Amino acid sequence: MQINDDKPYDDINITPMLDLAYVLLVIFILMTTASVQGMKVLLPSSSTTVEKLARPGMKAVTVSPDGRISLDAAPVSLEQLEQKLQAHKASNPEFPVVIRGDTAVAYQTIMDVFEVLGRLGITEVGLATKSR
Question: Which residues pair with 38 in a beta bridge?
Fold first, then answer.
């Protein structure tokens, strides 16, 4: 039995093309999740170091210089913040919250966030600072 190499292919092998598509998909997913880190704020500095609260389920509330509030990089109002934290608390009763407030933000906005956390009974609260 002799194989004729001059015969055109009847089908196309798409395995290498699918491998390339999967690699590109993984790279896209990694790059997209790595770039979502939240808003940039100028944190107040502190002379003491505090242990990091990084735990699974931790939520980060960021207050920008103009008073906009974000929960894990998603912009929210105070009412939406309360609703989302309440929904998260239903599935995970004890989770830490870190408040990242810019140095130029009005103190009242930070207090409004504290009031929301107090109404929900969230007691593990930290304030993010940068070391001097």
Answer: none
Provide the terminal-to-terminal Cα distance of the chain, rounded to the nearest Å. Answer: 80
CATH number of the domain residue 108 falls in: 3.30.420.270
**Residue 41's pLDDT is what?**
63
What pLDDT, on the 0 to 100 scale, is given for residue 22? 92
The count of other CB atoms within 10 Å of the CB of residue 71 is: 19
**Residues above pLDDT 70, as percent of the chain:** 73
pTM: 0.59
What ranges make up the beta strands (E) of the chain? 45-46, 59-63, 69-71, 74-76, 97-101, 125-127, 130-131
Task: For the beta carbon of residue 83, count every other beta carbon within 10 angstroms.
Answer: 13
Residue 21 within a domain: no
| Cα 118 from Cα 115, distance rounded (Å) | 5
Q: 50 to each of 6, 43, 53, 60, how far by Cα in Å?
A: 73, 14, 9, 16
Count how many domains the chain has: 1
Q: What residues make up the domain containing 53?
A: 45-131
